[in-house]
Amino acid sequence: MKSVPKIVAVTAPPRPQERAPASTGSVKQAMTMTEKILARASDKGCLSPGENVWVNTDILMTHDVCGPGTIGIFKREFGADAKVWDREKVVIIPDHYIFTADERANRNVDILREFAHEQNIKYFYDIKDLSDFKVNPDYKGVCHVALAQEGHCRPGEVLFGTDSHTCTAGAFGQFATGIGNTDAGFILGTGKLLIKVPPTMRFVLDGEMPSFLHAKDLILHIIGEITVAGATYKAMEFTGSVVENMTMEDRMTLCNMVVEAGGKNGVIAADSVTFNYLEGKTQKSFEPVYTDGSARFNAEYKFNVSELEPVVAKPHSPDNRGVARECKDVKIDRVYIGSCTGGKTEDFVAAAKLLHASGQKVKVPTFLVPATQKVWVDLYTILVPGADGKTCAKIFEEAGCETPASPSCAACLGGPKDTYARMNEPQVCVSTTNRNFPGRMGHKESQVYLASPYTAAASALTGFVTDPRKFM
Amino acid sequence: MAPSGKVFHGECFVVQDNIDTDQIIPAEHLTLVPSKPDEYEKLGSLALCGLPSNYPRFVCEGEMKTRYPIIIAGSNFGCGSSREHAPVSLGASGVKAVVAESYARIFFRNSVATGELYPVESEFSLSKEFETGNIVTLDLESNVLINHSQNKQYTLKPLGDAGPVIDAGGLFAFARKTGMISSASA
Predict the structure, then answer these.
(1) Tens digit of pLDDT for each residue in A104-114?
(2) Mind telling me how many Å the CA of B108 is from chain A's nearest CA?
(3) Which chain A residue has its CA at the smallest distance from B162's CA?
(4) Rounded mean pLDDT of chain B?
């Protein structure tokens, strides 16, 4: 009988293995949060960066772009009649190409529905009537925001998604990362995935957060500092007094763009802010883990946010950092506020606050795409602080912005040609989204400046890239 | 689609640093489902159509396959999205291997899992030295890249554990070969 070789690695190119000091298991080894989560998920007492381990999956998420391919692979490899490993751990969220006449896009949502019914998937956020998102009670919208709002993100868990911004969920103190169709198909059949444990880079954010600065500025600043490959294969752990004082949505903004630095996952320790957010959202119990005091980091960066200015990522890279006030001569054609990065409720409240404070109207078309149905409702119900009892929607209307659109990913990644707010001409856009490589929002020669909601709103008021301090 | 043999020969196509997934396969084409054979072929015909206009066309007008079996790239190739459509479109177009200074992790992982192409690492960036159209031989058995047009030879980093997975045809084929999971039912 031939001995069966184990799969040792299917992930990273070979790197010299870092050997941990000999451990009998009774010797406690200091670990980071990411290492602890993966250790527990792989039933190991401890592990070190560089090790390849089989982890159990708590949640697998997929959407309309990658779901059909994942399903195809699952059926091909496990059989046409195969059943998923756990019908309650698969969350299917149509969100990318929804409000379009593109037949294939619409067909892809049908494929998800067929699979969800066949497998009796518990969490399928379906949409059937494309003419009015509001008449679809199950439909949520952008997957990463929906995962959080629907209580699928829990401290200490392992979440995989067929989308690069799955790292957003790390804000909840869990391990969350993006994977492709083949890996996802494997998880559907087995519930497991082979993962290489990443070393952790620590980012300590301290100081007093100025009123004109946003979590988006912080992550753009960091990416500009370490470059688009600065965190490749690594975990990015965010800590410090500034992070402790952040809301969940701010933490999600930080973790969302970890992938833009090449990061494998982002992570923030769970605390009372996390537990309060989760109150009433999830029935499942969870057990947070925390980085040991003597854990070793691959690198440590310290920032004093009191010294930072609003920044943008200039075309055509998320690490092409520029100070917003130095870009004041850049004429723009439009502003886009939306996506998993910058289309959450608090992002819109931030933009609305600035617009209201200015008392002025926008000079360029300003597109608003709430990430989910819940965010859309918030725009019409939440009263913006310090704005005479007005809602976001009222402020946007008075400032001359476009009417908030149907929740989805929309133009963040271009999409089919009829996608709302897609750039079909070579225009310049300031956007609260996450990537600005050539052609990202449509036309190859269009230019995207990534920015915070404050900077986006300020730019809309002037028609140029504008530092929000002009209005705050 | 497992590449056959470990020696590849032909014209190379050169790209620079940070070629992201939107340039490899623009998002508007993501409605194509890679597991459907006719849509798989269509993805191949669209490989690298997102590159800026100063690049030559990777797949000629009206063609379904590329004339370039090998891509030479700079650093951080495949950054951006986790979409598997990226390595799939390259493999479907006829690419056998990419030789890059470095890769983004999800793209590397997807290339290995699908078995669509060999993501090889060069010792240093070749993207400024090579020119599109140079005739090259890539020998993955001896980890050597020869540029016949410029009469130069380069050592490559070994594929390591990723090699056998791609040789077998990707994650599932490898998992079956090694007995990790059973054969698919007919």
Answers:
(1) 999 999 999 99
(2) 7
(3) A10
(4) 92
